[in-house]
């Protein structure tokens, strides 16, 4: 769709992501897609993130809001609960100020698109008479489970398994989001994920960062309850359909990335020979688990590229890096899309974060999943038993994933017959993922429909 000729744009969307890597990436990408179809978008990042990064958002505008922690960000809050409370309090006001700032400009805001983690943004949108579009960053399956709990259709604690929910496979306790059975951990996050549904019925649009064929049954279940649009995968267009110009990477890294070292290293390795181990932006492991990961990777006798964030580096066993430099490279943050698209990668050893999971599918890379918390446990269930593109590690009686388990799972994926089947399945999902965003695909149609409604509304039709 072209922007209407007599207008410069078809409305201005102010997008408010939850301020973390796994939430900024898909929302920024979705904004780029909307701009390519004729809308103007501005991504509102927190002052802290703005001051501590070098955003490169391309065709998307960038502006800032305050979460109440401008100097140190989330790390300055006493607790998760304190952070979320202050973000709502200060963020609501700050978002309203931002809307006002644009009122007299050439491009007044017409729509607030907000992460489902910050449902209070819808109240701000409505107070200003704006369209409210809710963006769910996580999988439809996970949203559906939370929806059931929020509405009392599934009561906690779960008393009998398997749990049967229409559109989902039978779920054991360990397949449920971790908040349901790892008690006492992160109560504020638990409340937040359930609160995604407090006002979603008042949102004008609901977007889900997934694609229809990946979660068709559960998407259908959720659509019966409330209209939703799957719009993903939201990876840069370069890897999907190449229709958005210059969209080759996520435009905002919260961590420093040194691309050339690891890509040059990967380029020297044979096709499908490298295990890429990376556990997203939030995972932390204790010393013992780090040792098991290190020894497990070593025991596979395969090449490995391991991302260990600076904050976790001291937990790498002493001399491990020097002693394994022939086989392995350890870095602090990777250009993950460039890595996963490199033909040397044969297996992604991951925590099962939603973005990493979808990225693996888009690049047809089979996975070993070691879920840590939140939605990762449910994603792991789908990876292993629904999409058949990987294996989930088993945790031992001490709550650790041992080196032998890691070695065995990697060998299954990288070397075994089962692994070949997983690779085949992963390649099938790769094609379907691309099909969804290409012209006429399910996600493309949903985006087109939204854009044309926005433009019609903007034109007063
Ligand atoms: O070295 C790295 C590691 C990761 N990434 C990128 O960072 C993002 C990570 O996102 P995700 O895989 O979803 O993991 P988290 O950062 O851990 O995301 C949090 O947020 C997600 C969305 O709510 C949840 O699915 C996860 O469970 C939760 O931990 C992805 O786009 C990766 O490509 C890099 O660029 N370089």
UniProtKB/TrEMBL annotation:
Keywords: Glycosyltransferase, Transferase. Pfam families: UDPGT (PF00201). CDD domains: GT1_Gtf-like (cd03784). The keyword Endoplasmic reticulum does not apply. Gene3D superfamilies: Glycogen Phosphorylase B (3.40.50.2000). InterPro entries: UDP_glucos_trans, UDP_glycos_trans_CS. Its EC number is 2.4.1.-. SUPFAM superfamilies: UDP-Glycosyltransferase/glycogen phosphorylase. It is an enzyme of class 2 (transferase). Belongs to the UDP-glycosyltransferase family. This is Glycosyltransferase.
């Amino acid at each position: 769709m072209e922007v209407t000729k007599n207008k410069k744009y078809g409305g201005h969307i102010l997008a408010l992501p939850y301020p973390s890597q796994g939430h900024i990436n898909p929302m920024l990408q979705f904004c780029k897609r909307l701009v390519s179809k004729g809308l103007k978008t501005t991504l509102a990042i927190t002052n802290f993130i703005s001051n501590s990064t070098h955003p490169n958002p391309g065709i998307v505008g960038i502006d800032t809001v305050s979460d109440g922690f401008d100097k140190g960000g989330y790390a300055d809050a006493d607790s998760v609960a304190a952070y979320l409370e202050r973000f709502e309090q200060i963020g609501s006001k700050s978002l309203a100020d931002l809307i006002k700032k644009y009122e007299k400009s050439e491009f007044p805001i017409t729509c607030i698109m907000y992460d489902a983690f910050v449902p209070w943004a819808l109240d701000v949108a409505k107070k200003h008479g704006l369209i409210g579009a809710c963006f769910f960053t996580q999988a439809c399956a996970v949203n559906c489970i939370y929806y059931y709990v929020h509405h009392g259709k599934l009561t906690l604690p779960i008393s009998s398994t398997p749990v049967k929910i229409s559109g989902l496979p039978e779920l054991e306790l360990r397949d449920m989001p971790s908040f349901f059975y790892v008690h006492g951990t992160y109560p504020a996050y638990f409340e937040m994920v359930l609160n995604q549904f407090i006002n979603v019925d008042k949102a004008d649009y609901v977007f889900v960062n997934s694609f229809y064929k990946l979660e068709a049954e559960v998407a259908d279940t959720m659509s019966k309850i409330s209209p939703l649009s799957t719009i993903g995968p939201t990876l840069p267009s370069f890897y999907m359909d190449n229709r958005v110009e210059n969209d080759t990477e996520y435009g905002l890294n919260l961590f420093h990335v040194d691309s050339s070292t690891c890509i040059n290293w990967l380029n020297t390795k044979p096709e499908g020979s490298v295990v890429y181990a990376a556990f997203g932006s939030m995972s932390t492991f204790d010393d013992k688990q780090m040792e098991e990961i290190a020894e497990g990777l070593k025991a596979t006798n395969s090449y490995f590229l391991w991302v260990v964030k600076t904050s976790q580096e001291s937990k790498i066993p002493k001399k491990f890096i020097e002693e394994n430099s022939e086989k392995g490279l350890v870095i602090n943050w990777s250009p993950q899309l460039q890595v996963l698209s490199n033909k040397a990668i044969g297996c992604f050893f991951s925590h099962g974060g939603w973005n990493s999971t979808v990225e693996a599918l888009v690049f047809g890379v089979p996975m070993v999943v070691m879920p840590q918390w939140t939605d990762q446990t449910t994603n792991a269930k789908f990876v292993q038993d629904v999409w058949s593109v990987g294996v989930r590690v088993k945790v031992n009686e001490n709550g650790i994933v041992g080196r032998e388990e890691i070695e065995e799972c990697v060998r299954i994926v990288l070397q075994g017959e089962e692994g070949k089947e997983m690779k085949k399945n992963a390649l099938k999902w790769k094609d379907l993922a691309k099909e969804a965003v290409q012209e006429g695909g399910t996600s493309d149609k949903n985006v087109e429909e939204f854009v044309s409604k926005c433009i019609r509304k903007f034109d007063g039709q």
